[in-house]
Amino acid sequence: MPEMPEVEGLAQFLREHAVGRAISAVEVGAISALKTFAPAPAALVGRKVSDVARHGKWLDLVTVPAGDGAAGDRTEGGGAPGAGELHLVFHLAKAGWLRWYDEVPRTAVRPGRSPIALRLRLDDGAGFDLTEAGTRKRLAVHVVARPADVPQVATLGVEPADLTVERLRELLAARNQQVKGLLRDQGVIAGIGNAYSDEILHAARISPFALTRSFDDDDVVRLHAAIGEVLAAAVAEASGRPAAELKDAKRRSMRVHGRAGLPCPVCGDTVREVSFADSSLQYCPTCQTGGKILADRRMSKLLR
């Protein structure tokens, strides 16, 4: 699943390639992906892309009537909505991606015949597809007047860049839960998913099953530093890359996530895995759990 660094990379890419251009067509390939019906996607046709914002793992293509003011003057994450704006807000989910074309194929998208959920064409022939692989379709597309009209955007937690040590301490103390779950909760911290939570906890030398109310001041400071350092490095790695390269760049940067059975690059111990019904986590026993192995079953608990 694309997480904050890759979504920010996509936002930067689209700012460079789409802002200032007018939308010439929007073709829906998967009705299930379209979560709103008014305004219709066709309402975007003829409008100019004025900015691309990011809200957690959500991308936000900001459009204005073709004759309206300057583009690209909003802040990251989106400022106050302007009069006449329409937003194409979308979440790529677990198996979705954005495929950019300098020249969009001329053939029309046929609903149900391809992995293309939506195709957007720009007035100079460029554009992009939103695609989703697999049978479990979760990609979500909204056309709204304000990003906050999307409930999942309105309820997002704090952006990692705005997370202070004090705020993190409050979040950890609010409910006693496994820290891995807290980091992935979009209503608590926006943008961190399964992969980067593994990487953050490895960098912080903290077990994914550590209970949040057990954290002392040193744990909080280490976790806060790891969140900032891991995500900053990942955003820097994604910055300036074409959309087609972002997935591979993410995989190459991982130290423990997706590396079960390989040596930890810090200590050399074997990276271990805990599997669940529809996901898994990876960790280093030496770096994170004092050498203890986490039981690999759905109700896993740290072996004591």
Automatic annotation (TrEMBL):
Q: Which SMART domains match?
A: Fapy_DNA_glyco, H2TH
Looking up InterPro entries in the UniProt record yields: FPG_cat, FPG_N, H2TH_FPG, Ribosomal_uS13-like_H2TH, Znf_DNA_glyclase/AP_lyase, Znf_FPG/IleRS
Task: Tell me the leader sequence span.
Answer: none
State the PROSITE patterns in the record. FPG_CAT, ZF_FPG_2
* An annotated Gene Ontology molecular function: lyase activity
Domain named Formamidopyrimidine-DNA glycosylase catalytic: which ranges?
2-139
Question: CDD domains this protein is in?
Answer: BaFpgNei_N_1
Which GO BP terms, alphabetically? base-excision repair
Cofactor(s) needed = Zn(2+)
Q: Does the keyword DNA repair apply?
A: yes
Ranges for domain FPG-type come to 255-289
* Catalytic activity line of the entry: Hydrolysis of DNA containing ring-opened 7-methylguanine residues, releasing 2,6-diamino-4-hydroxy-5-(N-methyl)formamidopyrimidine
Q: Name one Pfam family in it.
A: Fapy_DNA_glyco
Q: Which UniProt keywords apply?
A: DNA damage, DNA repair, DNA-binding, Glycosidase, Hydrolase, Lyase, Metal-binding, Multifunctional enzyme, Zinc, Zinc-finger
Family assignment from sequence similarity: Belongs to the FPG family.
Q: What is this protein called?
A: Fpg/Nei family DNA glycosylase
Q: Which organism is it from?
A: Georgenia ruanii
